[in-house]
Design a protein that fits this description.
The two termini are 45 Å apart. The chain folds into three domains: 105 residues, no CATH class; 203 residues, no CATH class; 153 residues, no CATH class. The relative contact order is 0.09. The protein is mainly α. Helix content is 42%, strand content 6%. A hairpin with an 8-residue loop joins strand 5 and strand 6. Helix 5 crosses helix 6 and helix 7 crosses helix 8. The strands form three sheets. It has a four-stranded mixed β-sheet with strand order 5-6-7-8, with helices on one face. A two-stranded antiparallel ribbon has the order 1-2. The chain is built from 18 helices and eight strands.
Amino acid sequence: MTGFTIDMPGVRECTAVPVLQAVISDCKAGDSFSCRYGSHGVNVAGLVRDCDIPTKQAENHKHVCKYHLKEFMKNLPEDDLNSRSFHKIFNNAFHKIYFGYCDMFGIYGATPPEALHVFRIGICVYLYEGFMNHLSQEMKIYLNMLSKQVVAQICRHGNGAYPLVDCFRHGIFHKKMHLSGEQKMSRIFLLYCCMMIPEFIDKLSKSSKRSTSKSEGFVWSLPIAKDWMKLFEYSVGFDAWLRSEEQDREPFFFPNFDPKKPNIEDVSAAQYRVRAYMKLFKKCVNRTHGAKLLLTKFHHLLHFVHYARIHGLMINFDGSRSESNGKTINIAPGKRTQNRVINLTYDTATKYVEYMNMETFSCILQCHHKKLYNSHDLKSQWVQTIAESNHLKYEIPPFLPDEFNDWKVGGSRFQIQHSPLVMFGSAIGGMTIYWRSTKYKLWDDNLLATLECRLYSGSKTNVIMASPNLDVLFTTMKSMIRNSN
């Protein structure tokens, strides 16, 4: 990279060359980049890619990590690397990349654990499961009822500083197909709000759970209930700390940080609080299945302070935005292809183009024909996969498409033409949808049913019966048969 020229006060023109500071990735990708084994089972010697923690000591919150250095790992013989759960790669491309301040750690320190997978999708799930495993059926019913009341109170105040708990308005046990990382954290916040109600603490401390063939019994007491309340409170604060946009520098470096040994984890004020959280977590959460607490995500809590010293605030290497974009652009349209490897990329891009065209159709219809939009409950295909319920409306972005809009990756079945000067007249004045296909006829029932299914219900199943209201809606629809030649 040759860089770019900038003018600096009091200095002649200089060339600035940006360096790669970090690679934001999940655990699997980070392990692949650093040539670590793919397994994280209890029989693997080394647990993580960036420090020397043995798997058998993963739940030790007092462990002092020694982080891997690039030159040290490059010069290790193959047997030593295998004993640390690494493959021997003689020409790793990442070893030739300059990582700036992080260069002494190389790719091992340039793939930091990030808050989404470690905390929200990991620790918050273990915490919720551990709490629910101690509750009797009677307490679960009471908690479900109480959570509805708490959500109603929080939503009524409309405080944007609170986590979004609206998805639990039907109760904390309301069945959903999938919870996002933000919603899993909101679930912990909702439990914390319930724990702050004296009646719930009083009833919880006097309850007990009988042992069954699938789970052990548990007897609650007031000190145990207070420990759980403290753990929920610390968890909410921990998440806020991970996502804070501004923090003091001093707690990360003092009182015991030696800049001459940056690969040795010294105890700072921030690290002390992380260890205290892990100690309380182990006290309350009795995870008995799987690897118990010998988990990568649990140990990686100790690494946040180290990476904050290198990369700044944890939000700098958070993977939430990239994870969301990946699901929207790649995973969602990719699931609606034939999953053929040879043309998977092309088919995924084509599906994404179709969704974008439908998004434009929804946007125009809601902006100019609100009543028609509401009468059909039109929603975005994207929102349908993550919406809290089928009754939420899609918030249309404040823009309209160009006069002629044809996103395509070699051709899309949907093509939208919009004339902004024609605002009235037909049912969807100013817009024409061209359906390009050789499979369906113009007014075939299957065509209308498919459009209704894709545009309104968002369902993946084929609908045989078409709604008669669509005859009014698509009065300006035309067919444009692709020339087979």
